[in-house]
Amino acid sequence: MSVAEHDPQHLLNRRILSRPRDEGVYRRAQSAGLSELQARILAGRLHDYTDDIASLIDPSLRYLAHPERLQDARRAAERIALAVAEGEHIGILTDYDVDGITSHVVILRTLNELFGVPMHKLHSLIGHRIFDGYGISLPLVERTLALSPRPGLVITADCGSSDEPRIARLREAGLDVVVTDHHALPTAGPPASAYATVNPTRSDCDYPDPTIAGCMVAWLTMSLTRSVLIEQGVASPSTPKLSPWLSYVALGTVADCVSMGASPANRAVVSHGLTLINRMGAACWRVMAERLGDDSMPFDAETLAFQMGPRINARSRLDDPYAALHFMLAADDASARRHLEVLDTDNQSRKAIEADMVESARTLALDALAEGASAIVVFLEDGHAGVQGIVASRLVQSFGRPTLVLTPAAAPGMLTGSGRSIEGLHLRDALQRVHELAPEALPRFGGHSGAAGIGVPRERLAEFRDAFLTAVEERLGDRELFPYVLTDGALTPEQLSLAAVDELARLAPYGREFDAPLFDGEFRIEQLRPVGAEGNHLMLELSCGAVSLKAIWFRALTPGELPPFGLGDRLRCAYKLSRNRWRGRESLQLMVEHAEPV
After folding, report:
1. CB-side exposure of 337: number of CA atoms within 13 Å?
2. What is the pLDDT of residue 11?
3. Do the bridges between strand 196-198 and strand 176-180 make them parallel or antiparallel, or are there none, so unpaired?
4. What are phi and psi of 52, to 5 degrees?
5. Residue ranges per domain, the chain?
6. Please, what is the angle between helix 164-172 and helix 138-145, to 10°?
7. pLDDT tens digit string along 499-549?
8. Answer CATH for 64-269 from 3.40.50.360, 3.90.1640.30, 3.90.1570.10, 3.30.450.20
9. Is the distance from CB of 49 to CB of 32 less than 8 angstroms?
10. pLDDT number for residue 10
């Protein structure tokens, strides 16, 4: 690594790179009748894809595999059906993020509204991020065992695969635990004490798509339970299907950042779910639309990812998550508005905390990177555990390295952390290697390829950091690491139009591994002015030949600073095309993601 690469300022320089294209996919897409622009988008995201392209560009629920193909799903469904038939109390234990909350809604509404289980026999068990921690934590086990009467069955969603010791405790107390989850299993396999473990990542699972979200696993399990209840004569054949709940599954799928690429199932669920959401049949959707305004309609995947998701997540990041659950379950608009006020307030607080933590974390990261570190591990003594993952994401964007952000845990002597990865590094696998190198420095971890959570004894932080750097270097070798922006190339002046926006919208939904289209080009600055309460956004007018365009660049500036370019300068921009609606009129607007002077 050169001296320049040890310079912290060098590490801040993002590069605009063109996406590599799969020429086979490019030709097949055009043969299937797609435009050159649409074919370019697919070819930049689907490498070595040999399946039917139609399943991706025309998402349909017919691409969902039958839930029977999930290992243990039949056993899980029969145990849930037994609990319904015999009138048992049932615990619903889920994670506190959007995937967990939407899973909770799917299970609870199905049991109550479709299977007739009275609400007083259903017990919502959601851990507190700060005081309980992730998954089936010991405090949550104690809370479950303190219920009177105790549930005979606990159904988990979006958690449980790595919680064998706590599941064993529940089993010893006479409770059956059905785990539904999508996180990678430990090397020991499914938790031995669980009555059933439904997880598409199991090595013995025949389900064709291991990328589905936790809420989808829960939906499939409850759908199969409906079939079992009908087979057994406990439920009527006219019992409604769970299709309406796909609105919640769409939200959880988008917010959990599961693959939107070569996954016809995820694309179908999100596409169908958005259709349901835009009917505005539930108070949560109506009130959110009211809050965002008419220009936000119709909702798309970005609305779920950047408007709905952060508000629901903010509650669990800063406090207990039940307000988020109550918002999703609100029976009327007035109740939904009250809960949304709480979520909005928390989201504003989260943003302020995040800004402070990012500033502190960046300073610590630069010190480490000046020494040539291949990964970032920062400990924030005064940091808030609920915002670790967001801060880690910001550092990945800034420095192009896998990142772990740790803060003090509720348990004395422990630290808790969240991590985010880069392309080419499976984060949970790297943490498994850390556990092998230094087991006492990483007693607890879980997650998947792109994100993970950890627990580290404070006194072993240095040992953990060294082991993590070793694990990352083993996997990445001499690969050069830097922050970058991948684009789909340049557009002609003629393509800078609302027609191109419509063309691209036909390939939606976009998301992880199927990123929204991003283009690059050179423009002349005709006008610019800082906007926003803190003056950190830039409103621009850019020209390309005879075409003049409005553009917005969010978080372009540090509050109070001036842009390093002026009128008449040329910028190379990485940008998205967007439809700007204002007072009933529509126009093209560029959303600048990154720019550098030419």
Report:
1. 5
2. 53
3. parallel
4. -65, 125
5. 8-19+485-597, 64-269, 373-482
6. 20
7. 999 999 999 999 888 999 999 999 999 999 989 888 889 999 999 888 899
8. 3.90.1640.30
9. no
10. 52
Take residue 94 and report the two structure tokens written for it: 């889920």
Contact residues for 305 (Cβ-Cβ < 8 A; gap 6+):
254, 255, 511
Asked if the 373-482 domain carries CATH number 3.40.50.80, the reply is no
CATH numeric code, 8-19+485-597 = 2.40.50.460
Helix, strand, or coil (residue 492): coil
pLDDT at 4: 36
What is the reported pLDDT for 198? 98
How crowded is residue 530: how many other Cβ atoms within 10 Å of its Cβ?
Answer: 17
C-alpha to C-alpha distance for 71 and 73, rounded to whole angstroms:
6
Residues of the chain with pLDDT under 50: 1-8
Q: Please tell me the predicted confidence (pLDDT) of residue 7.
A: 46
Residue at 321: amino acid letter: P
β 547-553/537-544 pair status = antiparallel
Whole-angstrom Cα distance, residue 106 to residue 249?
8
- Tokens at 551, concatenated: 């553009």
The rounded distance, in Å, linking the Cα atoms of 400 and 421 is 9
Angle at alpha carbon of residue 337, lines to 331 and 341, rounded to 5°: 135
Closest alpha carbon to 435 in 455, 450, 413, 420? 455
What is the C-alpha to C-alpha distance for residues 245 and 175, in angstroms, rounded to an integer?
28
- CB burial of residue 77 (10 Å; 0-12, 13-18, 19+): buried
- Rg (C-alpha) for the chain, rounded Å, is 24
- Say whether 373-482 and 8-19+485-597 share the same fold: no
pLDDT score of 12: 58
